[in-house]
Design goal:
Layout lengths: L17 H20 L6 H13 L2 E2 H8 L3 H13 L3 E5 L7 E5 L1 H22 L4 H16 L4
Antiparallel strand pairs: 1-3, 2-3
Helix pairs in contact: 1-5, 2-5, 3-4
Length: 151
C-alpha cells in the first residue's frame, strides 16, 4: 500500500475501514503472487489446490471447494487446468462410487515445490515493511480473525 495514489484515510476511520483494508491487502498480495507464479504457468488458485492436495492427500472436489472457499465452477476449471498440465489427476473415489478424488501427480509435486519457494519470496517481499515481531502479530491476528468468521 505504498502506492502514492493510495491514501489510507480514504478508506474511512475506525473499525469501518477493516473491509476495504482487507480487500486492498488481498488484491495486492494476489496480484504480486500471480505475477511471480506466471513463469511457472500457474496462478494462485492452482497453487491453493496443489497446497491442499500435497497437505491432505487425494480430496474430492467438494472438499477442495470447502478448503479453498472457491465456487464449484471455478474449482472445476482449476482442476481441469491442473489435469491438462499433468499436475493432478481425477480418480474414482474409493469411498464414494459417484465421486472422484483429485490427486497430485509427481510433476505436480515438483512444480509445487518450485512454487512454494516463490510463495516464500513473495511473502517476504510483501511483509518486509514490518518487523519480524509485527509479521508474527499480523499473521496471528489474521488467523484469529478468520477462525472467528461465520462462513
Amino acid at each position: 500500500m505504498n502506492a502514492p495514489d493510495f491514501p489510507p484515510r480514504a478508506l474511512g476511520a475506525g473499525r469501518v475501514r477493516i473491509g476495504p483494508l482487507l480487500r486492498h491487502a488481498q488484491r495486492r498480495a494476489a496480484r504480486t503472487f500471480s505475477e511471480a507464479l506466471r513463469p511457472l504457468g500457474i496462478e494462485g488458485r492452482h497453487y491453493g489446490v496443489l497446497l491442499n492436495l500435497g497437505t491432505h492427500g487425494p480430496l474430492s472436489q467438494r472438499r477442495l471447494i470447502d478448503l479453498t472457499r472457491e465456487d464449484k465452477s471455478s474449482m472445476v476449471r482449476t482442476v481441469d487446468d491442473l489435469e491438462a498440465r499433468g499436475l493432478a489427476v481425477r480418480r474414482p473415489s474409493p469411498t464414494d462410487r459417484r465421486a472422484y478424488a483429485v490427486e497430485i501427480t509427481e510433476e505436480g509435486r515438483a512444480l509445487f515445490a518450485r512454487a512454494s519457494v516463490i510463495a516464500d519470496e513473495v511473502a517476504a517481499r510483501l511483509l518486509d515493511c514490518l518487523s519480524d515481531q509485527d509479521q508474527e502479530l499480523l499473521c496471528s491476528l489474521l488467523e484469529r480473525f478468520v477462525a472467528g468468521s461465520d462462513d
